[in-house]
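note to self — DONT lose this again. spent like an hour looking for the file last time. sequence + predicted structure for the chain T wanted, 283 res
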Amino acid sequence: MEGNQSPTIQALVDAGVHFGHQRRRWNPRMGTYIYAQKDGIDVINLQKTLSLLEHAIEFVKDVASNGKRVMFVGTKKQAVNAIIEESSRSNSMWVNSRWLGGTLTNFATIKDRINYMLSLESRRDSGEFEVLTKKETLGLENKINKLNKYFDGIRDFNELPGVLFVVDVGRESIAVAEAKKLGIPVVAIVDTDCDPSGIDFPIPGNDDGIRSIKLVTGFIANAILEGSVVNTQEAASTDEEAASTDEEAASTDEEAASTDEEAASTDEEAASTDEEAASTDSK
């Protein structure tokens, strides 16, 4: 979803964000976000969804404005494409295959695997594979493909994310647990069968519908882009202030040098006067 349009109740309705699960699957802790039941299906209160979504958007925007990145996590098939598209559009990290335990909490080991993947890709792109046998080349290509499956979205994973955005907190419970352990805030779409209590910024909504996932994920991506613009502007302003400070310092140095020259000239004049006085005394 491109553009900076704000979320509306109508947009949420059109995307089916209000459709929950069958009542027999509901989590009682989601009760406060359920508006009614229809044909045995829980209907989510979109007034609350809208309010919480707007709150989450402002938070993500603030995180991005401070130069922190967001990691998108959604491995269910309905979320795969939206996760790639919106995270790529907002220059964010993403995981849309199986979440590997320790991705956050065992950062050093994960980084080693990413570096290994990048090393293999570099060797392939530089032509090193051309001197290998077909079997060896195929083996290395398979390794690259397997590593890409898990690490392609976090290949530039150099520091922990400022926030985790999750689709389906039940399915991604390990990712959520790791984020909580490290104090990383979690923003998530939470359906009626999930527990919202451990989520910092829950967004009650349908986490199974492709359109619903795409819509909410798009709003999060837009928030990141808006926040990144603020961060860029602030960085540019800081650079301008630094340049101005340097200019002022240079001007001060020039004034000091000029003062030194004037003092030296005064000293020369005084020395000349002393010489003339000495000459007069000798006469």
